[in-house]
Amino acid sequence: MARFLLTAMPFTGHVTPMAAVARELVGRGHEVRFYTGSRFRARVEAAGATLVPWRQAPDFDEHDLPATFPRLLGRKGFRQLFINMIDCFIATAPAQLDDLEAEWARAPWDALAADETSIGAVLFSEKLSLSWATVAVLPLMISGSAGPPSGMGIVPGTNPLTRTRDAALRGVSPLISRPLVTAIDEARSAVGLPARRQMMQDLVFSRVLVAASGAPLLDYDRADRPPHLHFVGELGAAEAPAPTSRMPGWWPDLAGRRVVLVSQGTLNIDPNELIRPTLAALAGHDVLVVATTGVPGRDVLPFAVPANARVAGFVPFAALLPLVTLMVTNGGWGGTLAALSRGIPLVIAGGDLDKPEIAARVAWSGAGVNLRTGTPSAHIVGEAVDRVLGDPAFRRAAARVGAELRWLGGASRTAELLESRLLASA
């Protein structure tokens, strides 16, 4: 038995896949502690792990980020991305390190695995000269020697012109990332580490092991990936279906219907951005539309919904997705992988953060349509839905991606890699 510490930023999309890994490690007889926000206590303990809550680090609520990080109020797009990365992920790293040092002093561990935004864990490992592994719960943003910088939503070039474009973008990326580099060096200085002028993607990925959610079919067939990178498929697949007795009262309405799911995840959850145009677009279709608001208990929308729509704050995907024909989404990585792992094609309205990158990858795989905006009109949504429902090639591509995601092993394979690669290097 080994002692593992897992860390994940306190967002549902980060904690859920890491909790699946925790569950697998506990099932293999290991002791697992999980450093994340206190709001995830029940999820962590359900996985059999022990919560180590954020104490010195600000224990924020993902549904109300401006309450803790006021500069995010009203921010969208590129400005939101940079402020979110600086204030939430980077500036909290010194306090995260304080929490981890306190826990290490109380009871050391044998191995540490962190999601790729847990900068405090990276700095802690560097300060104590300890190995760590990265469990990438977002689309892979690791640096490479080819293609455009990850995160831009641009498909790698395949001819001299587009390869030249990619090289130019790689050249200007350090200039664009300068505010993040400066913030990282400030965090390093605060914990007694020297400045390195590193971009975030060069800091947060382990040189020992990267277990990346996703699949090669969602990674552009890139050949510039390091040998210690292993794709592991979908990490949330261990979730058990909830009893139907706990489902919304309208659950029996789904039987025998062609179901379209529309979801905006748990961030940027203004329903006017995607849910409203989707409901309007499909009001006259012979489908039943399930809309999830992203906030448990928020089971109504602030506008009238058509007769063929059903609304819930949250419905367990493990129970719902087997009934879904198509998913309309703003491109959250966890929901995207959950749908594709079941062969469900997608219509993606990826507007900001990592969503444009996810939309581009899915479209490249052939498993969905990229709307290239986070606020589509009803007309655009309707055309895309009709296109996907009318062309079986989308479902065939989704089935291919799903088969690869399942074959890669998910949380079980991740636990195996942590045992074989990380413990061996400790």
Features:
13 strands, Rossmann fold, 426 residues, alpha/beta, six-stranded parallel β-sheet
Short description:
This protein is of the alpha/beta class. It has 16 helices and 13 strands.
Q: Which stretches are poorly predicted, pLDDT < 50 over at least 5 residues?
A: none
In CATH, the architecture of the largest domain is: 3-Layer(aba) Sandwich
Tell me the β content. Answer: 5-15%
DSSP helix fraction = 40-55%
* Termini Cα gap: 14 Å
- Structural class call reads alpha/beta
Write up what this structure looks like.
The chain is of the alpha/beta class. The protein folds into two domains: 3-238 and 408-425, Glycogen Phosphorylase B (Rossmann fold); 247-406, 3-Layer(aba) Sandwich (Rossmann fold). Helix content is 41%, strand content 14%. It contains 16 helices and 13 strands. The strands form two sheets. It has a seven-stranded parallel β-sheet with strand order 3-2-1-4-5-6-7, with helices on both faces. Strands 10-9-8-11-12-13 form a six-stranded parallel β-sheet, sandwiched between helices. Helix 10 (275-282) links the parallel strand 8 (259-263) and strand 9 (288-292). Helix 1 crosses helix 16 (410-425) and helix 10 (275-282) packs across helix 14. The mean pLDDT is 91.
